[in-house]
Amino acid sequence: MSKKSRDRKVTVEKVTWAQAFRDIIIAAMNKGQLIPVLLGLALLIWMVRVSPDELSKFGYRCVELIVHHHVLGYVLWIMTLLGWVMHARFAKGTTDAESSRIGKEKTALQERIAGGKLPSSRA
Q: For residue 1, how many C-alpha atoms fall within 13 Å in the half-sphere facing its CB?
């Protein structure tokens, strides 16, 4: 270890709630999840502001609509959407693993043909 790296002091700056909120919004924008995050935030604010009696009535009314199949289409749509998301994540993981395996196999074959270790293209 060099003298410069030993003498360097590490400072940890305190993160404010505004910086944390900004980072969450930016991450949601980058991942395409801004609308669900904002809808969840609006729902959370509404739940905090409404009285407990009204929130309880609203919860019972939602359960009643589900039991009587008045919102069955919406429930099935949400279940289908969640299933699609889970399948997409599974397929991405499988594809990534297979691509990595093929890449390693290709590198090993190239190194065998070249007769030595090849430099990596990864930074």
A: 5
**Helix/strand/coil for 52:** helix
- The upper half-sphere exposure of residue 15, i.e. CA atoms within 13 Å in the direction of its Cβ, equals 7
Which two tokens mark 101?
């395996």
Separation CA 12–CA 75 (nearest Å): 46
Question: What's the rounded Cα separation, in Å, for the pair 100 and 2?
Answer: 36
Cα 76 from Cα 84, distance rounded (Å): 12
Q: Rounded to 10 degrees, what is the CA torsion of 52, 58, 61, 63? A: -80
Residue 123 DSSP SS3: coil
DSSP per-residue codes, 15-48: PPHHHHHHHHHHHHHHHT-HHHHHHHHHHHHHHH
Calculate what percentage of the chain has a pLDDT beyond 70.
93
User: Which tens digits make up the pLDDT trace of 52-73?
Assistant: 999 999 999 989 998 898 888 9
E strand or H helix that includes residue 100: helix 72-114
